[in-house]
Structure formats: C-alpha cells, structure tokens
C-alpha cells in the first residue's frame, strides 16, 4: 500500500451535437440526439489511490468517503453527489479503484464496473505507472496505450452507450516541489511512495534532476495517450489536461504524506470532473 500514489477541455468528439445540414428541399432534417448526456443517472469509478482517498483521512489508509468520484463527504461534494444528489449517489455509484493500481489493472476494474451498467465511468489512472522503484521500471508508453485501449474495449463490448470521463495524470514533479517543504512528508516518502520522483527528495544534482525530468516526460506521454484514445470514442470526455495543470498547493495535499490529495484536494478534483462532464459543447 505504501507504494501507492496519486492516480484530477474534453475529447468527446461531439459530432452528434451539431445540427444536421439542410437537405435543400422542404424542412431541414431534425437535429440528432446529442451523443453526450450531461446528467447521467449512475456513476462507477476506476483507478488508483487518489480515487480511494488514500492518506486523506489517516496516514497510509484509504478513505473512500472523501473520494472525488463517489465519496459521500459534505466537504468534497463528489462527482457522484453533484450529478445524482446525496441519496442517489449512495444508491447508484460504485468505486472499483484500488490503491497501488496501474494501467494494466484497469481492464479488470472496468470488467467489475460494467456489472452495474453505469451511465458514466470515471477514470483516473497512470501515476503508478510512472511512480516505480526506478526510472527503467516505468511502464512503456506502448504498453500503457494497449492497457488503456483494452479497458475501453472491455467497456464498449458490454456497454456501448456508457459515457467515460478521463482525468489526466497529475503533475508529479510539481507535487514533489510542494511536498519537499515538509520534513514529515519526506519521512513518509521514504516508506516507498513514488521512489522514481520522490527518492532523495532534497538532491538537486544533475543525476537527480535528470531522473525527475525523465519521469515528468513520461507522465506527459501518458497524458497524450489518454487524450488520443479518448478522442477516438464519441462518448468519452478527457479533462483537457486540467488535473495535470492544476497547481496543487499545501492546502490541497495530505498532511501526512504531502503528495496525495487532502480532503480539499479531493474537492478540487471533483470540481474539475463535474465541470468537464456537464459542459455544454457546441
């Protein structure tokens, strides 16, 4: 568990939202039904430790109550609560995220999620593929793409009309730069949280700088994969990089590990997700 880390504009290809052209004779053809429904009636979540609320409530522990995707906490006002109301979220939202999960685990999580026949699946995964013991152990981009595509295929085979919200991978380098100001946080990092980025947190020599930059570039490559695969699906919306670009400050980071989102950070991620899902696209 201690190796788990953060997984927080779109690519919905909404050609179906545009009015059909006139036939040139008689009345124009009616506009087709929009592909994207901004008010889905059920939500399933898949992903990693950020979606389980890891380290948000207690040290080295999951806290799904404050999950940005499906939690019931008043302080977070999760995506499910914003879409379904508190009672609806309790009855019609499901969290299949697992702390420590990588993209290779997503197809299995998706297979469990589709059993509920959700109208929306929220995805946040990829940080653990970059957060490895060494830079060389990071998931190759081609494998990352294949695993994400397999997860999408698993969904589509079972639920061809389900919608998908895909969050970008957070900026791990920025989280390092914020968290390294905390002596307690750096001690927790030594337990095994994201060694590829957080190892030797105070080292600023050329080797350490290159290591962190290599991880940062790999995260950017993962985000491009998420965007491209999502863009190919008319019922998928990507956050446009909003989670990656969000400038997490100390208030948005866990007071135990200064890396995972705090309750406030979870609320900010819920805002981004809700804004993306409910956006009216031209």
From TrEMBL:
UniProt biased composition (Low complexity): 16-28
Region annotation (Disordered) ranges: 16-41
Domain of life from the UniProt record: Bacteria
CDD domains, alphabetized: SGNH_hydrolase_like_1
Keywords of the record: Hydrolase
Single GO MF annotation: hydrolase activity
Listed InterPro entries: GDSL, PLB1, SGNH_hydro_sf
Pfam family, one: Lipase_GDSL
UniProt protein name: SGNH/GDSL hydrolase family protein
